[in-house]
Each structure stands twice: as structure tokens, then as C-alpha cells.
Amino acid sequence: MTNDTLKLSAEEQFAHELEELKKQDKGERPTNWQLSPKAVVQYLMGGTLPNGFRVTPKYIGNQRLMEIAVATLTTDRALLLYGLPGTAKSWVSEHLSAAISGDSGYIVQGTAGTGEEAVRYGWNYALLLSKGPVPEAIVETPVMRAMKEGRIARIEELTRISSDVQDTLITILSEKIMPIPEINQQVKAVRGFNIIATANNRDKGVNDLSSALKRRFNTVILPVPDSMEEEVEIVRQRVQSYSASVKLPFDHELLKEIDRVVTVFRELRNGVSSDGKTKLKSPSGTLSTAEAISVMNNGISLAYHFGDGTVKAEDLAGSLIGAIVKDPVQDKIVLQEYMETVLKPQDGWKDLYRACRDII
What we know:
The chain is an alpha/beta fold and 360 residues long. Helices cover 47% and strands 12% of the residues.
């Protein structure tokens, strides 16, 4: 692994923290877990260890939600992280897997085209034609490997997978086995195996889970950040991490711009200005925290490669408008009204108003 890797996995990026937690962890660890449940929650929520080592928070929000999620994974129930797009479902899923199994790579990405062979197993057709259905012809999926090794498997965007493919999970989750009828065998799950799935309710083409499958999951709903301070801190952490990964400088003056972007998103999302005096129309998009992070990352790259390295309003305006205007007719009207009633009169925001006006 070189430093040129575009995206490090959670267990690589925070290897020093996981190693230190292992050394300090005195709690009881479930079979095949790298850390005790309490240490997993501490890894997610951050804090200072008895020896003074600081663990950075990965999730900023209600600690009880993380405790419920981790407790679920110690049982025979799978975990479903549910919520609006951009509420850190995939982020939490990756870090849970990294802390529990030491490897977050056992992942199935759910799409409308995800087939049964991506969830259960596939076949090496060259071997299948030459030798018939033999064990060595089986192509193991991340779920099958996780079952054999006692790891956490991740299924992203479960509700984008068609219902008949979703239901192939029922036997795996209820009986902890994966039948392979072609060779009259079955894979039995090793202790430590479980599944973390993510899903959102705003995606077009959502396939609702059957009642039978829902009963196999404990659902934890991840909310939009409660406060302005929480959301700003989430964006700050992720933007700082991105800057380091692509070797761009993180100027602490960026906090001012982060604050402005988050304010715009929250006001439009909530339908009211921060001072409560102006009611606003909300656009069709979700304006999630993840999109605020993307706006800032794009602004940093634009300023660094095409400017003087200092993020200005014109570096953010294009991405900001792109995040807000999903419907070119209705959302454009919403943004224009917001610009005239909130941005324009506000002290210190004239530069952002002019930059957006020049583009829209």
C-alpha cells in the first residue's frame, strides 16, 4: 500500500487509533471481534484514553444510537442503518466493520442491476463447463467470505436491490447458512458473522423490504444533525480529511466558508431563515451534510488549482448552485427567492450573493 492510494479504507486511515484501542481495551470481546463493544463505540464517538491518547470522533451525534447499533451486532439480528441521503450511513457502516472485523472490504453495492449471484455466490463458467458444478468452480461473494471467516459484511443501498434478490438474505440471516444445492452443500456462518445494510427513503426506484426480511433486521435511524454546531463540525472533519488525502492545504479560515455553506443548506432545508424571520421554500433535493462536504471539497480544489489557494465565494458558488438546483425550473425559483430575501440583505454575504447571481 502506497501513499498514492486515492482512498484509504477506515482500518488503514485510522490504524494507529485501532491499534491503541486494542492495547487499552480491557473489555470482553465477542468471538472474532477485534475490540469490545464499548471500545467500538469509543472508536466511533472519540475521546481520550487513560494513557492520554486521543481518539478522533467518526460520528458526531447521539451516542445511544451507536450503542444500539453495536449491541445489535452482538446478537443474531442484522443491522439496518436507515435515513435520508447524506446522514453518514455508509460512513458509520464502514467504521463499524473496521472496528469489529478489522476489514471493511466485505461489501456488496446495491443497485437496480444487482443479481442474486452478487449476494450469494456465482460460478466460474470455464470451470463449470469443464468440470461441472464442483466446489472450486464457485465464485465466493463478500457475504459468503464473511460467513466463512466470522466477519461483518456490508450491503449498501439495500432498497435499491430488487425484492426477489433481497429475499435471498432471509435464509442467511435466520438460519445462518447459505445453501449450495448444485453441489448438495451449505456454508455455515462462523461466530462473529453479521450483516450491516444501509438504505434511504428518498431514492427513486426504492424496493421496500418484505415483512419477513424486516424482521431479521434491527433498524437504527440516523437523523440529520440536530444543531448547526454538530453539522459544521462534521463538515470540518471530512473536509480536513479530504484535504490531507489529496495533499491540499487546509486553511483554518475555511471554517468561515464552511459555516456559510452549512447555514445556506440548513435554512433551505428547514424552510426558514436562521433568525426565524423569513419563511422560505425548500428545494426538491435533500441538501444533506454529505452534499455540503462535496461543495467545500470542490471549492478547495478549484481555489488551489485555478486560484491563489484561498477559497472565495466564486469558488463555492457553482457547486452550491449545483447542489440546490436539481429541478431546473422549480429549484431555480426557490434559489433566486432565497438569494434576494436572505443572502442579499445579509451583512458580509454580498460576495456570495454576487457570485451566485453571476452564475444563475
